[in-house]
Design a protein that fits this description.
220 residues, alpha/beta, Rossmann fold, 8 helices, 7 strands, 43% helix, cytoplasm, rRNA_ssu_MeTfrase_G
Length: 220
């Protein structure tokens, strides 16, 4: 896709997403600034699939907006394997207008962590970047209300990473693709949990899983 076509597609997708989600002028400006920074950094490090750049708004940004709307009552977040800040930086952009809002972005890749810090600083977001492995961020996970992750690991593996550190009332919001049913079945063999499955607007078959009351099953 040529430059002019890319810009036209981005403008079309932006208008579509903002028509579906009521955000303030300030939030809209921060989203625009985030997209601009992502496109700039994408030239030197691979933050998202290059083929999805013209569809940043519908393929990437909208997931975070949907999550923020579903979990409107939550203020303190940890986003795991944040990468390009999806959905963590989108949540932080939404939290910027909410008193007490804070997002912890856990990303062990130094270059991606540098990108996250740059966006958080330039957009004045209530976000803290932890350039560490998830298992080394126990105190962070223990201090938040909710944990999010997108395309990071299987449910079974995610549960194993976070369960030793989180509280009984922690809520987990995991964005999953079409293979989510097999992941749920695999996790259910080792864990007990309550789950609500929300359809994702981003891709047919994708879901936003809302999980709580996580507990490891006793070994048989």
């Amino acid at each position: 896709m040529g430059k002019a076509a890319t810009e036209a597609k981005l403008a079309e997708e932006r208008a579509l997403v903002l028509s579906r989600h009521a955000v303030s002028r300030e939030t809209g400006e921060r989203l625009d600034a985030y997209v601009a920074l992502l496109r700039t950094w994408q030239k030197s490090i691979n933050l998202v699939s290059p083929a999805t750049i013209p569809e940043i708004w519908t393929r990437h940004v909208e997931d975070g907006l949907v999550l923020g709307e579903r979990a409107r009552g939550i203020l303190r977040w940890a986003d795991l394997g944040s990468g390009a800040g999806l959905p963590g930086l989108i949540l932080a952009i939404l939290m910027a207008e909410r008193e007490g809002g804070e997002v912890h972005l856990v990303e062990s890749n130094a270059k991606k962590a540098a990108f996250l810090r740059t966006v958080a600083r330039e957009l004045a977001l209530p976000a803290t970047v932890h350039a560490e492995r998830i298992e080394d961020c126990g105190s962070v996970l223990a201090g938040v209300e909710a944990i999010s992750a997108r395309a990071l690991a299987s449910l079974d593996d995610l549960f194993a990473l976070v369960a030793p550190h989180t509280r009984p009332d922690t809520v987990y919001w995991f964005l999953k693709g079409r293979a989510h049913e097999s992941e749920i079945a695999q996790a259910a063999a080792h864990w007990r949990f309550d789950m609500v499955k929300h359809a994702s607007p981003v891709e047919d078959g994708s879901v936003l899983l809302e999980i709580c009351s996580l507990e490891r099953l006793a070994a048989r």
